[in-house]
Amino acid sequence: MQEPDSHSVDEHARGGPRPSAAEFLRANHDALLADWEQAVFQHLSGKAPARPPWLIDHLPELLTTLADAMELGPEALDERLEVAHAVARLDEGFNLGEVAQEYALLRRCILHRLEAQEQRLRSGDLTRLGETLDRVVTRTMTLFWDMKQRILQTLDNMAEATLDDPDMETLLERLLTRLMESALTVDTAAVMMLEGDALVVRAAVGLSTDEVKGLRVPVGQGVSGQAALERRPFFVRSAATDPRVLFGPLRRAGLRALYGLPLMDGERLLGMAYMGSRTAFDFSDSDVRLFHAVAERASGHIAQTELRAREHEARKEAERSLALLDSLLDAAPVGIAFQDHELRYLRINGTLARINGHSVEAHRGRTLHEMVRGGVVTSIEQSLRQVLETGRPVQDAIIEASNPAHGGPGAWRADYFPVRTPDGALLGVGVTVVDITDHKRAEAALQQAIDFREELIAILGHDLRNPLHAVNASAFMLGKAPDLDTSARRSVDRIRKATARMTRMINDILDFARSRLGGGIPVTRQRMNMVELCQGVLDELQVVYPERPLTLEVRGEDLWGQWDPDRVTQVLGNLVVNALQHAKNDTPVHTTLTGEVTDVVMRVCNEGDPIPEELLPHLFDPFKGSRQADPGNKHRSLGLGLYIVSEIVQVHQGSVRVDTGLGQGTTFTVRWPRVPPPRGYLPP
């Protein structure tokens, strides 16, 4: 620092008393602060600094220290201020040039202030002020450089500790060891990991290493637990006597200074790290700064280790899931595949691969036309393309081709469905294929057996009717003979009754065969009177069953309609005979005809026991009786009568129902529409 030019100071100033450098610094303390801030702003070309100048917090104290040193000598300079400056610059990430620049600006502000006031300091003070300021700058920059080099060297050592990719606990112990090698006052250090709601010591070096490993501190308890809860550093001056230190080994080791800070991954707490000294009551700013660097590196490695562990576990879980899926696919009896937009096989199980006649490996990446041969490939491709174009599944597609597993013709049922990502994008087509060859063969064999049985029933029914008619006609002629005695006449009546029952059974068999062979029960409608027809049926039955009262009640006047008289006769005959068989002995069977607006309602009632509840759902099924089978019953039947009734009524588009109950007997109700209802009409 040089004296201002004497030509810039007038005679009055030269003749007056000169202030000392200390007096000048104290008198211009605030002005120098303002000048220095303005100089920094101008140095940045008028732009607001991205970060506040490091020296602004320390400049007031620096100016005071410079003034004291000018009065008391260089020994008045406080080295702690220079260390604080250096640590602050390191924390803010300044480089050595930025540090020198801010001190240079301070020197310039002092000179400019002297020139502005046209003052001269006491002889030699300006030179001593410059030397003192040089001493501060030199020591501060030396401390800055030493600390930075020390940290860089420690970080290099820590980087070397990670080269062989050790496990996390080994790595943490290596980092702590590098810290102790760089900071001579540090006698012990450890890292506590957050596990649940407690901090657990997972790595330790130095004093009491084996004793502290595995110790736990609940979050919120003790000095370290409270610091973890509040996410802040902690410092204990005498750890051996402080009750907040919960680790007995640290107290027994006689530790003095104990410093700790949280390990963070963003806003997430990973744990706590601490270092202790048995010789010092406090750590230097340099050691604290170095510990922060070690802790920051440790936090990064812990976070990376956890991330790798999660990725590894996720990968293992994915591999287990894929292995399980592959096992399920291979074991599934259903063929399964996934194909992309070009119909390439991306995934296929062994079942479908065998159906296609190639191995699973041969399918991967190959197209449908390369793996499937023959005429079926066109229909399969059409279904796959339809799914890709419409995004809708194609179900129950039947494929018929040669079956290599059976060595003959085969059949499969295939379903094709879209496969999408969670956001709805179409990835390709999923395919499931079920071998139904055996099912088709069994179905064909069963149908053949059914057709043969029903054709046999129809033939037998037709061939039996001719001799039965002859028996009935002969019995009728025999009954006309005047010389028959009572016993012979009863025999003739039994023949006629038996032939009537056989005729009804054969008619039922023939109608059942017609309905099952697909032709249905034929009807020929004609205009007829329901009363006249039913009275004739009851008269004929009365001859066959002379001992049983058969009554007819008519309600209403108009009972005409369009019906098939033979089928109406068959329905009423089956219902009356069924009622006679299951009624109590000698009780009547009542038939009621009621004329309504659109229907004629026929009701046949008896006074027998109610039909068991478990039989009602299947009462009108073929070969099902209206009573439980009784080996001693002389009137056993095929169980076709009510089935034929239901079929005939449905052909007439009417309805039939049954009401039965204890004490009220059983009533069958048939509704006969007078004219055929329009198509689509549902009977009540």
**In percent terms, what proportion of residues is strand?**
15-25%
Number of strands: 18
Low-confidence stretches: 2-15, 631-636
Distance between the termini: 119 Å
Overall 3D geometry? Answer: rod-shaped
Counted by DSSP, the helix tally is: 21
Radius of gyration: 56 Å
Largest sheet entry:
6 strands, antiparallel
Percent helix, as a range, is 40-55%
Mean pLDDT across all residues, rounded?
82
Computed structural class: alpha+beta
| Physical arrangement of strands within the biggest beta sheet | 3-2-1-6-5-4
Can you tell me about this structure?
There is one protein chain. With 684 residues, the protein is an alpha+beta fold. It has 21 helices and 18 strands. The strands form four sheets. A six-stranded antiparallel beta sheet has the order 3-2-1-6-5-4, sandwiched between helices. Strands 8-7-11-10-9 form a five-stranded antiparallel beta sheet, with helices on both faces. The protein has a five-stranded mixed beta sheet with strand order 13-15-16-18-17, covered by helices on one side. The longest helix is centred in the middle third of the chain and has 47 residues, at 285-331. The model is unreliable at 2-15 and 631-636 (pLDDT under 50).
Helix-strand blueprint:
Layout: H1 11-15, H2 21-27, H3 29-43, H4 59-72, H5 79-92, H6 96-117, H7 125-161, H8 168-182, E1 188-195, E2 198-206, H9 209-212, E3 216-218, H10 222-230, E4 234-236, H11 248-252, E5 258-265, E6 268-276, H12 285-331, E7 335-339, E8 345-348, H13 350-356, H14 360-363, H15 368-371, H16 376-390, E9 394-403, E10 408-420, E11 426-435, H17 437-479, H18 486-516, E12 526-529, H19 530-544, E13 550-555, E14 560-563, H20 565-582, E15 589-595, E16 599-606, H21 641-651, E17 655-661, E18 665-673
Parallel strand pairs: 13-15
Antiparallel strand pairs: 1-2, 1-6, 2-3, 4-5, 5-6, 7-8, 7-11, 9-10, 10-11, 12-14, 15-16, 16-18, 17-18
